[in-house]
Design goal:
seven-stranded mixed sheet, mainly beta, disordered N terminus, Neuraminidase
Length: 633
């Protein structure tokens, strides 16, 4: 029988409520925490097997213990024979089932010393050994063999599949999504390029900080691996003297690494600081109950070489490896004003609406280009800006502080450009409206350059109509149309140099929307954060509306971030890729949108932000042909 306790605070005493009140007398005690914001937390205590229990009762108890708060599965292993307990590897994988059924297999049983029960169900997802999520389908079927030793009245599980088997609702209850961070491939530790998010799932009640750190040391997912580097030497682990992540009362995390990594920490300061940054941004966004209880987040990290008394290096959110290298004010947004030029305003703190935008440089394109037909501001501190001519056929690159207008277009397209997007590495990604091509292109446009870079999109079926690159430059999300069917796909970016010239490959494409019929068209999309996308699109059942999707495909199983509700006539949407150490603190900058598709022409120049559960007018100073409000990126 599974026992669920609710731990709460009452005059400083712990109150346990359960069907039968009992404390566990074996295994690792579950963490029991309290919080003013979350006064009660379910704690699931593992139960050992009952004497003379039948095989079906044992199997039920064993599967229950797999989703308990027993950190090392020691109680679950009591259900196994000695040989099975030694060989069973619960960390190999996790299989998530929509339904779970158990039936006996008569042909393999004799009912006295051997019985076989088949566990089956509709498979919806799997986690691999490093807890990376993969949507899956089809039927799961595995045998569990029970044996009874001679002279014994008790059955034990003698053969079983490796890994965990759990129902969807249990997976949703005990796991939470966490991003682990890696440096982009080909960059040295001194280049300070932004770190790349790799989503995984950790057990929320069983030391998720240590779990996330260990996953980080093991390297990235197979999907992301060609686009990143580990950052940590092979064999890196937590020191035996401190095998868990410790967090002080001031929010500083303490991590001690083993001898395998200690030498690297001591001899290469740049590598040390980058490793500290990887750990800080990974741990700072782990939503732990412990952090909620203390009312704090991780604000810094000390990285130690073994038992050293002083840290080899430290990290805080203010470092150059930040996954989001944004401009000075993270909530600065840009839009095309009524005169057809670029304006900016602070979308996060502006009050007394509507507000007047502040004009930026009027020298972003030659006067002959006319009003801006599209733009993108670089997400780093460079201030580079790409703009399209009014007819969207000429592309110019300038900067927010330019003292002269560019004299020539870095790129032209007789069909026009559909979208522009910068990464933090100085690459400008473009989409051509040419119906005969793949659509996606790139220009090394930073520092005024105009080198067109060949782009290969592996496995592309159809044509790209919109693209948004992540600030880290390692991942890109695409709107793809193939024979009238619209899909939103994410791919990794692999950079190489062929014959001395840069080349870009987008590989590993996969749809982030589980059902291709969910979205019938896409109006606009944006990176929502490090591992999810917000899409403004026409949906089969609800009409046009924003929706948020996780890039690993887990949206169909795990509830994702809540999307803002529909606004009449909205033509674009934009979200800010935020510093992961600020996630969960309520500092998320608001979503932006416009009403460029409104039937009433007087509404089309308005810029909206999502604030307190509704859309409100931020400014009315936008171009009636489309103000295109967006954050840098």
């Amino acid at each position: 029988m599974r026992r669920e306790f609710r731990a709460g605070a009452l005059l400083g005493s712990a109150v346990l409520l359960a069907g039968c009140a009992a404390m566990p007398d074996g295994g690792t005690p579950p963490r029991q925490t309290t919080s003013a914001n979350d006064a009660q937390q379910v704690v699931v205590v593992a139960e050992p097997p009952k004497a003379e229990a039948s095989p079906d009762q044992l199997l039920s108890g064993f599967l229950d213990d797999l989703v308990s708060d027993d950190s090392d599965y020691q109680t679950a292993k009591l259900f196994l024979s000695p040989n099975a307990a030694k060989s069973w590897n619960p960390e190999q994988s996790a299989t998530v089932l929509q339904d779970l059924n158990v039936v006996p297999v008569p042909g393999k049983s004799n009912n006295t010393t051997r019985m076989v029960l088949e566990v089956s169900g509709t498979q919806v997802a799997t986690l691999d050994a490093r807890h990376a999520f993969t949507p899956s389908s089809g039927q799961f079927k595995e045998d569990f063999t029970f044996t009874k030793a001679k002279g014994s009245k008790d059955w034990t599980i003698d053969k079983l599949p490796d890994g965990l088997v759990l129902k969807k609702e249990d997976f949703q209850r005990i796991y939470e999504s966490v991003d682990v961070y890696f440096p982009i491939a080909g960059q040295s530790a001194t280049t300070n390029s932004p770190l790349v998010a790799d989503p995984v799932y950790v057990r929320s009640h069983i030391d998720p900080l240590t779990d996330a750190a260990n996953i980080l040391f093991g390297g990235s997912s197979a999907w992301l691996a060609p686009a990143v580097q580990p950052g940590f030497p092979n064999g890196t682990a937590l020191s035996a003297s401190q095998p868990t992540v410790q967090v002080g009362s001031d929010g500083t995390a303490s991590v001690r690494l083993n001898a395998k990594a200690a030498q690297q920490l001591q001899k290469n300061s740049a590598a040390c600081y980058r490793m500290a940054a990887q750990l800080f941004f990974t741990l700072a966004q782990v939503p732990t109950q412990q952090a909620k209880q203390a009312g704090q987040t991780i604000t810094g990290l000390n990285l130690y070489a073994g038992d050293a008394s002083s840290p080899s290096c430290v990290a805080t959110k203010d470092n150059s490896y930040s996954p989001v290298q944004s401009v000075t004010n993270e909530a600065t947004m840009y839009f095309v004003d009524a005169s057809g030029h670029l304006s900016s305003l602070d979308a996060g703190t502006a009050r007394h609406l509507p507000v007047q935008g502040q004009p930026v440089s009027r020298l972003l394109a030659p006067v002959t280009a006319g009003a801006i037909g599209g733009f993108a501001v670089a997400p780093d501190v460079s201030g580079w800006v790409a703009v399209l001519s009014h007819d969207q056929k000429s592309l110019y690159v300038s900067s927010l502080t330019s003292t002269s207008a560019p004299t020539h277009a870095v790129l032209t397209d007789s069909y026009g450009f559909g979208s522009l997007s910068w990464d933090s590495l100085g690459t400008l990604w473009t989409v051509s409206n040419d119906p005969s091509g793949q659509g996606l292109g790139a220009v090394e446009a930073a520092d005024g350059g105009d080198t067109v870079v060949p782009v290969t999109v592996q496995g592309l079926k159809g044509r790209v109509t919109e693209a948004k690159v992540a600030a880290d430059g390692a991942r890109i999300v695409l709107t793809v149309i193939d024979n009238g069917t619209t899909s939103v796909q994410v791919g990794r970016i692999q950079r190489s140099t062929g014959a001395g010239s840069p080349e870009l490959t987008v590989a590993g494409l996969h749809s982030i929307v589980p059902d291709s019929s969910t979205l019938t068209s896409v109006k606009s999309l944006s990176w929502n954060d490090g591992d999810s996308i917000i899409v403004l699109g026409q949906q089969a059942t609800t009409g046009q509306a924003p929706s948020v999707w996780d890039i690993d495909g887990s949206s169909g199983v795990m509830a994702g971030p809540q999307a803002p509700s529909y606004a009449e006539g909205m033509g674009s949407i934009s979200a800010l890729q935020q510093d992961p150490s600020a996630l969960g603190t309520g500092l998320k900058a608001p979503y932006l949108g416009d009403a460029s598709g409104a039937a009433n022409s007087a509404e089309r120049g308005k810029v909206y932000r999502w604030e307190k559960g509704g859309w409100e007018v931020l400014t009315t100073n936008g171009s009636t042909s489309g103000p295109m409000p967006s954050y840098p990126g």
